[in-house]
Amino acid sequence: MSCFRHIFYIILTLTLLQNATLTLCHTKGIRPKKSSSGIQLPTNMTQVQFSEKQFLKWVDFVGSLNHSLFKTAKNKLVASYTLTVDRNPATGDFTTIQDAIDSLPLVNLMRVVIRIHAGVYRTHVYAKQNTTPVPAPGAIGKQAVAFRISADTAAFVGCRFLGAQDTLYDHTGRHYYKDCYIEGSVDFIFGNGLSLFEGCHVHAIAQLTGAVTAQGRGSILEDTGFSFVNCKVTGSGALYLGRAWGPFSRVVFAFTYMDNIIMPKGWYNWGDPSREM
Fold first, then answer.
1. Contacts by 112-116 with C-beta closer than 8 Å and gap 24+?
2. Which entry of 102, 187, 259, 272 is annotated as an active-site residue?
3. CATH number, domain 1-29+142-277, options 3.40.50.300, 3.20.20.10, 2.160.20.10, 3.40.50.2000
4. Which of 15, 25, 215, 234 is most enclosed, with most CB atoms within 10 A?
5. What pLDDT digit, counting tens, does each position of 53-67 carry?
6. Residues 6+ apart with CB under 8 A from 185
7. Is 187 a catalytic residue?
8. In the chain, which segments carry CATH 2.160.20.10?
């Protein structure tokens, strides 16, 4: 597979060893392993809520590490001002989300938070094209999520997601990516969403060994997975198409062009042959 450039139709069903705790990625980053589907959820907590709690614990752990970049990033989290959206015009700055977005200047050098009050908003939200220069990269060998999506029925058309390890966190929900550019090194498309990538350019920047996906399907009954249709995979390094983050990870590549950087095996079993099917 690694010696030719041609069209592939590959279906990857990846498995993950049960009862595991932590694993080292190909870089120096650490990713918590997915547990088996037999895990007992806390009382009055759904699977999504439990996953959210575990993610926030991981964020707290990473944030507690002694690194100057974390302090710099934390300082930048403070918003210059906040806009509120409420269906009641007496209690909010705007009554629609789109009006709040449209109120921002084309050239905006400040961080603005748009806070949406509880309610039902039936609308399409459009954000204008962002031409801000790409910022300089952070610490080498560290995880840094560039974008996370946890909403349902979200679509991204003509967007660029740039990063290294863990670029795009497709956390949960149904998502559609059309004509997007996604760049990274290890697990740079990961999560447990039900997502379709159509006509997207996936580009690896791994220096040695990298991986495109780390899909987190935790049960055979879960209707989740990543599908890549009419995409292209390019880049550097020796690249795995996927790593088994969940016990029933599911990734599909259909009618996709791939550079001759793909590892012959295609996928990585997280270092333990017992995870293979």
1. 112/79, 112/80, 112/81, 112/82, 112/83, 113/79, 113/81, 113/82, 113/83, 114/82, 114/83, 114/84, 114/85, 115/82, 115/83, 115/84, 115/85, 116/84, 116/85
2. 187
3. 2.160.20.10
4. 215
5. 776 676 666 556 555
6. 27, 164, 165, 204, 205, 206, 207, 210, 237
7. yes
8. 1-29+142-277
Give the whole-angstrom CA distance, residue 94 versus residue 101. Answer: 10
Distance CA 277, CA 97 (A): 47
| Residue 217 · residue 246 · CB < 8 Å | yes
Distance of CA 158 to the CA centre of its chain: 16
- Predicted pLDDT of residue 197: 96
167: phi > 0 → left, psi -120 to 50 → alpha, else beta; which? Answer: alpha
From 40, 55, 2, 44, select the one nearest 245 (Cα to Cα): 55
Q: What is the pLDDT of residues 108-162, one digit of tens each?
A: 777 788 899 988 888 888 877 665 566 666 556 667 888 999 888 888 989 999 9
The token pair at 208 is 């040695």
What pLDDT was estimated at residue 272? 62
What is this structure's pTM?
A: 0.63
